[in-house]
Amino acid sequence: MTRKNVITLAWVSLATSMFFFFLFTTEKTIENFGLTILISSMYSFVLGGGNGLINDFLNKKFPWSEATTKRAIISIVAILITNIILVYFCNYINFVVFQKAATTEEYFLGKYNFINWFTINIALLISAFLHAKGFMEELKKATKKEVVEQKLIAKSANAQLESLKNQLDPHFLFNSLNVLSSLIDENPVQAQKFTASMSKIYRYVLEQKDKELVSVEDEVEFAQIYCDLLKTRFEDSVDFIFDVNEADVRKFVVPLSLQLLLENCIKHNLATSSKPLLIKIFSQGDQLCIENNLQVREQIKESAGIGLANIVQRYALLTQRNVFIEKSEDYFKVKLPMLSHKPQVVNEIEETKNDSYERAHKRVKEIKSFYANLISYCIVIPFLVIFNLITSPNHLWFYLPMLGWGIGIIAHGMTVFAIGKNWEDRKIKELMEKEKNKR
């Protein structure tokens, strides 16, 4: 029990004791006031604290978001048993121990049955409020989680869009076509090879554009084809070294990451025959590295770093491991995490999020409706009992609405949490399986 809860129960105890002392106590003495505070504190801390502890325990063992039906059934059973025991205990201490208004035999023979029943209803009201509050807090957490997932999906879509925009620089296509044009007259055979390589590059782009991860083997193979085109274009001005361990080729990286990094190397560095640009692609531990000697090209406009930022963003959606960047006076290196398995991708969430959200939204409305009904029952029925006993104590009519409404609540609860909902879910799954088999 938190300090805030203790303070709240203390204020409730004080307010309750003041109410009963000034309105129902005939002898207003310090002793009676102290006894009233003691009794009020007992009821507040035993009933309120007991129900609070039960609710906290159930929240940890059976969270609403993970086991709604089981939690609802266990909650109903737990609050009934707990409150009956706590009420009988508190009333026994009050009437037998403190006030000495009855003996133990008289108390358990039924003299205080009505008082016990009335107090149990009040305790159930407190418990229903606590469980409803716990449910609403859980609902708020689930809503926040849904918002985070929606932001994640939006972020993924943005990353994919940026990836498409940056997959192949338009300048690369323009320069490649110029190279191809010159090769057609000078070396037709080489021109055919160059055209085939360009075809493979764009085919790979189309195949991988919607994937979250690809194997290191596929990405390196694609990078080698891309480097062959660059080599044809720059000749001796650029050299490439590939040194990827055989054990790492079955791991996974973000698609087109090497292409973007190779493009950056060419874009931001000078490459001449006298000062060739050396680019190394190698594996180091559980990272795939691309390193180049630093020969920074003078640029009128500073680079925005969109390509590298896109890679970092896409990795952030898939793993907690970071993309590392090293820069010194002599070299520039980027380290990409190699993943041993494919994590759950955002696309899977995106495919099912709408249906899941609609079902969850409908389910929440049903549960809220049940708890609103239960809380209304716990508030209205005690009021009707008091009104009946004050206006016509010889004619007890409160049993009719109490029993009728109570049966309705039981039926409502079974529909929401037990028979009706389980049968409906099973039937939906059965029909979906039949439809799937037909296809």
From TrEMBL:
Keywords: Membrane, Transmembrane, Transmembrane helix. This is 2TM domain-containing protein. The lineage of its organism: Bacteria, Pseudomonadati, Bacteroidota, Flavobacteriia, Flavobacteriales. The chain crosses the membrane at residues 7-26, 32-53, 73-94, 114-132, 370-390, 396-419. Residues 358-433 form the 2TM domain. Residues 159-237 form the Signal transduction histidine kinase internal region domain. It comes from Chryseobacterium oryzae. It comes from the Bacteria.
